[in-house]
Design the sequence.
């Protein structure tokens, strides 16, 4: 069986959400990279996750957009982090900041963080990949 046929009509990409799996999930994705491909520290790299204002393109803004979609699918934000191994600038404080801002300041109810890690990537700067995901459950 051709794998393309399995997902035909069930998965679509669009602007909001980034990916929808019909009848299952509406997903927004963000990249977290403290360093650029050139090995230099990236400017404003944390803004993708924690800019706490509605209507922006951060993960916090995406949570609000997801909740307003009015579709039956469960909603989640996914942060894909690339780091050195070991990390030169750990992304853990950024992830915790996202959770605190979402729950305490913006009153967004998140599910528990799910994390998956892959090491030994061949890129000289982005040596490990960590995927973090939170279900966006609602507003408190």
Sequence:
């Amino acid at each position: 069986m051709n794998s393309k046929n399995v997902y035909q009509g069930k998965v679509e990409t669009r602007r909001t959400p980034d990916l929808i799996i019909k009848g299952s999930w509406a997903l927004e994705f963000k990249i977290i990279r403290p360093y650029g491909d050139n090995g230099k520290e990236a400017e404003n790299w944390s803004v993708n996750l924690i800019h706490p204002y509605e209507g922006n393109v951060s993960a916090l803004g995406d949570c609000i957009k997801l909740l307003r979609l009015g579709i039956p699918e469960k909603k989640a934000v996914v942060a894909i982090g690339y780091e050195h191994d070991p990390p030169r600038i750990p992304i853990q404080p950024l992830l915790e900041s996202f959770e605190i801002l979402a729950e305490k300041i913006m009153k967004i109810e998140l599910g528990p963080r799910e994390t998956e890690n892959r090491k030994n990537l061949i890129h000289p700067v982005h040596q490990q990949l960590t995927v973090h995901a939170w279900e966006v459950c609602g507003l408190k």
User: Anything to note?
Assistant: The longest helix spans residues 92-105.
